[in-house]
Structure formats: C-alpha cells, structure tokens
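Hi R.,

As promised on Friday, here is the backbone we talked about, encoded as structure tokens. Could you run it through your design pipeline when you get a chance and send me back a sequence?
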C-alpha cells in the first residue's frame, strides 16, 4: 500500500542538503522533511556524548512530523551515534555503512582513502567497516576541517588557487598512499569533487555518501512497501534550529536550487530534550 508520509532527514547544519539532493534524484516522488541543527553546528568538534544527545533530539523532532523513515545525513552522527536509532519506531539510515560497501566493491588495489571531519576520522567508523568487509584493505584517512567553511563561503571551484592549495595539503597522505577509491566522508565534500578529482586524478573513484545512501533508502522502502505512489507533487519542508544568513545561497550551492528563507520553519530543539546513557 502506498505511503505518502515523508522521509525525515537531519544534519548538524546544511551539509545534509547534498544527501537530500541525491534522495530527490533517486526517489523523486517522496515527500521530505529536512532539519538542520544550525544553532549548534558543527557537531564534528563535540564530544561523543554530546553528539549522541543532539542526534536523539533531532530524531525526536522528525518523529513529531510523522516521518516514515529517518536519514542521518551527517557523517559525524553516522560514525559516532548510530546506536541512537535503536529505540526509534521507524527505520534509520546513516551515511557511513553504504558508502563503505560501495568503496569496497569499487576498489581494485584494496587501497581506500577516507576524508572527513575531525570527529569522524577520530571515531574510525569508516576504517573499522572497511576492514570488516575487506580485511586486507589498506586504509588511509585525513581530517579536512576547513573544507566545510570553504564550501559554505562558496569557494569550491577547481580553478581557485586557494581551494586547490588546501585540497592538495589535506589529500597529500591520501595521494601518497596510492588509493584508487576515496570516500568523501562529509556531506559538504561532494561540492568539492571537481577540485578533489583534479588533485587525485581521474582514475580515483570518488564515493559520494549521499548517492550511496539514497540508493540504500530506495531499496529499504521497496522492501518494506513504503514507497509513495507519486499521485501528488512531492513536498519538501525545511526546518532549522537557528535562522542562517545566506540560507538561500547555501541551498543553491549544496542542493542546486534556490529555496526561499521565508519558508523555513524555526525549531526550538531544546523542547525535544534527550540524553544518551
């Protein structure tokens, strides 16, 4: 039976819009509710316990919107706090595991690179999962904390010397390792794909977590018979915990379309107080 309830998507900020973009592409008939915790961004430099508490609050807000499925469109939450989903009454999908599965399937020389926020890399979730699915893999990781502000400032052109210089600096150990597959372990990073490809070369496969996740969500919805029938136009709702200046500009960069900031709901996320023990 068709299910027109929305898919809930949350992120620590607006990077998850790249996941929303892929969900729209793979599942064009689905309604989507997006929550960005812009009042507490970034999660990448917070403690694990704080990240887990924030994730629980974000999930509880989305449940209040009667969602049928929740996607953590945040590499940090997916790496650090996937266990927050255990008590959810709906299915949950992070962005880490399916990107790892795609990387393991793609690699030919078993040398895989991972770039992400400081918290994501320190947690080591990608590396553990890669070694689970491909025990003899060689995994090289690199923290890239300045990529997010770079993207949100609109600096991502492969022709920009500042962008290329920073990409070269962060990816140097990845390139030296000779990886043939690179996981873009933060949802902002696909915007930098042209610059990353220019530095790494065309022979290195770039894994977009959003696309990997969207395909997995589609598979789940088909298996669970939760697909929308598409008889009505799909709807997107946006909610933030703090109104962000330049929201429309960032939407254009990350989502690829203009979004009117006046149509964004403001959420007092503290009302969804939660703690993780």
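Update: got your reply. Pasting your designed sequence below so it's all in one thread:
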């Amino acid at each position: 039976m068709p299910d027109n309830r929305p898919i809930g998507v949350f992120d620590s900020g607006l990077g998850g819009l790249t996941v929303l973009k892929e969900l729209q592409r793979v599942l064009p008939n689905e309604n989507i509710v997006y929550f960005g915790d812009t009042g507490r961004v970034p999660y990448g430099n917070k403690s694990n316990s704080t990240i887990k508490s924030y994730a629980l609050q974000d999930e509880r807000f989305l449940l209040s919107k009667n969602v049928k499925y929740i996607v953590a469109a945040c590499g940090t939450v997916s790496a650090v706090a996937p266990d927050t989903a255990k008590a959810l009454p709906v299915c949950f999908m992070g962005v880490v595991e399916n990107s790892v599965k795609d990387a393991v399937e793609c690699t030919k020389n078993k040398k895989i690179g991972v770039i992400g926020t400081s918290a994501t890399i320190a947690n080591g979730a990608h590396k553990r999962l890669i070694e689970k699915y491909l025990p003899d893999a060689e995994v090289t990781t690199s923290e890239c904390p300045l990529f997010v502000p770079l993207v949100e400032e609109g600096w991502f052109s492969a022709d920009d010397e500042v962008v290329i210089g920073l990409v070269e600096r962060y990816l140097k150990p990845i390139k030296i390792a000779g990886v043939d597959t690179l996981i873009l372990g933060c949802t902002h990073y696909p915007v930098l794909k042209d610059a990353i490809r220019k530095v790494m070369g065309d022979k290195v496969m770039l894994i977009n977590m959003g696309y990997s996740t969207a395909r997995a969500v589609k598979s789940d919805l088909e298996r669970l018979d939760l697909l929308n029938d598409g008889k009505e136009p799909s709807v997107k709702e946006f909610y933030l915990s703090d109104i962000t200046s330049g929201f429309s500009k960032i939407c254009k960069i990350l989502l690829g379309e203009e979004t009117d900031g006046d149509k964004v709901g403001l959420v007092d996320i503290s009302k969804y107080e939660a703690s993780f023990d």
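One thing I noticed while checking it: Strands lie at 7-11, 32-36, 69-72, 91-93, 111-116, 138-143, 181-184, 205-208, 236-240, 265-266.

Thanks again,
M.
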